[in-house]
Please model this.
Amino acid sequence: MTRIKTMILLTLLSASALFAEVKKGENIEVPYIAYEIKMGKGFAEVQANCLTCHSFGYIINQGKQSREHWHKKVLKMISHFKAPISETDVEIITNYLAEHYGNGK
Ligand code: HEC
Model:
């Protein structure tokens, strides 16, 4: 009985794998997303401290924000996700974010 069940399961699994296949000649288009990464003072620190866990998209998706917002985000990465960022780098990164992705506040 269990053998039959196993066989049915295996048959279903292999069948579903076939359905997932792409038909010949079908084009798969992978969207190209250009992240606007601003180079400048502090970018090296961002690269070393922030891009180790996630992409720059996480930063850009926030939109333009105040200096306080960015400062809180950097601190959140340390308190919530245990990012090992030094106090000096917290300042440098906050300044970088406020300058390039800031709203002037
Ligand atoms: C130790 C890993 C780690 C590091 C280092 C890190 N982050 Fe994150 N970050 C995360 C995780 C985990 C999330 C949440 C992912 C999710 O919710 O899907 C996140 C989310 C974010 C978000 C989305 C908003 C939010 O509040 O969740 C922003 C913005 C962000 N990170 C900015 C930064 C910046 C700036 C740095 C560098 C100072 C940084 N991160 C470094 C792990 C990290």
The chain has a mean pLDDT of 88.
